[in-house]
Input
Amino acid sequence: MTRYRISHRTSYRYGLAVTDAYTVACLLPRDRTFQEVIASTVVTTPKPDEFVETRDVFGNRIVHLGVHHRHDAFEIVAESVVDTRVPAVPTTDRPWEEVARVAADLRGRPAISVGAYRAATRASTPTTRADLLGALARRIFTPGRPVVEAVTDLSQQIFDTYTFDSTATDWATPLDTVLERQRGVCQDFAHLATAVLRWVGLPSSYVSGYIETEPPEGQVKSIGADASHAWCSVWTGSPDDGGGWLDVDPTNHQVPPTRHVAVGWGRDYADVAPVRGVVLGPSAHQIMDVAVDVTRLESDPERP
Amino acid sequence: MKSFDVNEPIDPVELARRQGTIDRLLMAEGAGYIVHDLPVRSDGRSVGLASRPWRLDPMPYVLDADEFSWIEGAVTRRMQMLEALLDDLYGERRLVADGVVDPAVLWGSPGYRLSAVGAASRRHQRRWLSTYAVDVVRTADGVWFAIADHTDTPAGLGYALLDRNVMTQVADTGGQPPRTIDSALALMRRALVDTTTVEGPRVVMLTSGIDHPAYVDHSYMATQLGFNVVEGPDLVVRDGELWLQTLGGLERIDVLHRRIVDRQLDPLETNTYGSAGIPGVLLADEAGTLAMANSHGTGVIEDPALISLWDRVGQALTGEEPWLRLRSPRLALGSTRIDDVLGRRAERVPCLVDGRVVEHPVVLRFHAVATEDGIAVIPGANGRVIEAHDDPTLPTPSRAKDVWVLGDDVAPAIAADARPAPQVDFITSVPTRAADSLYWLGRASERAEAVARSMRVIAVAPPLATWSGQPTPAMRLLAALTGSAVPTADPAGAGTDSTLAGARRLSVQAAASSLEFHIGSMLAESASVREFLSTTTGRVLGEMVDSRQSLAQRPDDVDALDAILFQLSAFAGLWSESVVRGPAWYFGDFAKRYERALVAITSASMAMRIDTDGSLADPGRRRGLEAVLGANDSLVAYRRRHRSDVELDAVLALVLHDQRNPRSAAASIAGMIRNASAIGWTAGIGRLESVAADLADQREGIDAGDALAKLAEVAGVLHASAAELTSTRLVAPPHPTLVRSRLADPGAVA
Output
């Protein structure tokens, strides 16, 4: 078991004061089988006039914030303490085609809770370069290949052939561009992986969260240098068939991920954007700054 | 096709005559009144959509009572089926659990609004569909098909009422009048009230404004229904409730009759921003404090990726076979020709096109509303003639047909007024944006009058024996009133009268674009506040569309100018005699008086300059002072008072100081003060009173240069006062900006 403390600070400065601001934040982590949230808070400056916490349709914790008076800066600080374990890899040895067929034939509640993640959304669907996506999918998902092996290879392939480049894309870069240039950030690679998985019929979710980073050899870890992160999770079959959800981080090629804390998940980035909002005011100019710290509080390998 | 008197072959000449009457009546109703080609609105947004005039065919499409009762049943069943579908897709989702609907398709649809999932249980909202419209076509062998469902923001009922209103004045009913559709309004009102469980709900209609292609439909309906038409910036969400910003403060809204599609309703959810939408409105929806007609999420029915499912899925869900089956052009491969879409020949009906009777298919849009007592289908429809080049799915009714249902009026099974809606008091409840529009309407109308009168003075000026080549005083005044540069002298052309005529024409032409602009502003502003103006005002404005066009063609045509002056006088008369006194009127009238004071001050300043201009011979000076009086419509007043040649002092007394002359600056400022106190703007009253006193002091002789500076000072104070009023009371809609975060994870580079 590893216990992390996470601090995620997002600050905005507006060129001119705004009079009204609405913000939706997906910053509070949720429990899952191998993750327990011990404590979590969201605090803002200035204090919000409205603060409402709800759950979205995926079960994520969403905070609605309203600041209805003049302000020229806004800061949101989310702090959490979370216990995590490295999840076990599903034991299934089913070929991927069989898992895809089982997924398509799901009935009852799982048809809804799992089936939703087969949906091709705009962010996870190529519009002009379906050929590139198809080629990538065919190269990896060869006939009869066991699902876990294929998924692991997908992570490996993206890791090997795609270059991390924070200048290559922005928040709105379509998947087509990522496929063409083979560059991007975690968000792009998570979208790419879900796109391939859904392409072959495997339910796959986009996961938003954090990753603990290590400083370069011999250096002290600097404050605020960690990051919010994104990866994906794939459904490998029914639990009673040795299946279940398996997290895949293609940016770091970790299957399953070992130093990750999940906040929430959905079909793509838009479902779980950490912070989104609308401000009303005279100016369109804004400066945003994000600082994330993931601190390991304790680590007890004896406690699973 | 029915045999019915009006559709018996009629003399094309008679049909053409009826067409002419129809065109004129539609224009008079304000429907031919096309706001979309107006250049610029006062807030700087340009209106770029091409205008959408529609022609109403002189021959109605006629259904007999039996045919309509089948339609009634079919539309009712289809609406019930879609309601059941929405209820399941956003509720239990049995269709997904049973494998009837593929979750990959449903969750992949941008029309499937996740925030509406589970909504039914937490709402005051009684149903998904309060209103519904369906486009249907009949085949040549008499089978009806649906070609499109409208569930998101069904439009067209306003057009149907307008068309019927005009048609009954023109067509020969042959002793068999069609069933009235007057009950549509009461039924719609009932349906909107029934949308919520709240007693006595407050209802507003949300539109994206005059840029919306169906704005005429929206505003006509709202005016008839007696609801406020509001735009996104009129509304705010606070603590999960929706509020209307009015001059009197915030007013709670219970039912939002939205004419904005699902995906544009809340920029916060969709993370995109258009000019429409209300940030946070879906929070109010989630909190259950607000009901929407139609409910958020209903647009999923219209998603092209899903429409092929509904007939089959609906049947699986309800166990009933739909009477109307969907044959969508969006599903037909390769062709949008109606015959290909239907898979058989569509019925053709006679239409008048370019003076000839030809046969074309017609798409009929029927409207239904849901109430607590059941569904009512309106006994009429929008008929849309499909010419060879028309896509039957596109709502481009270049040619419309009124749709008549024969038979005696049937007493409606649904009581239209079973539940009371609170009377919306337009007198006190004025959205701040509407007040803003009335303010600019008042200013534009007053400025237009001054410019038009001044143009007329020049257009009718007699030839002169000699001309120096210098711009005449009247030209200089016109330039001052339009805020343009004084035309430069033309030394080469000095002396001859023909060049004077040319210079006059140029001067009037230059002013014409300014006049066009002010009339355009009047039309644009009034379009969004029609519910505050009288019906007759709508007709006057409708005629101004024409006059504005003739002006563009012949700017120095005295008849065209006279027509505009008549219309502006009619507008002014209706403004003072037919508009209810309340905050809306006081704001508009404040603006009118303010603009009039500015015109008087500009004119008086010009009079002083003319009088001291040494280059002017006496007759020139006299004509210049007369032009000033003419621009202020004060020539007769002057003659009655003085019976002498015009003299500067007397002109200034009349134009600036005479309280008995309603055109004077003094009387106009007094009018501003009256309006300021009526709206309780105490801060402004003192300021305006002191500027009025300053102006009065100037009656005592001051030398000319000093007087000009003093007048400029007065104008400056008036300007500052008006700016303060508009900036404090009419808060301009702020520009929303999206805030985004992005995952860039430098630390994650492995």
About this structure: Chain B has 23 helices and 18 strands.
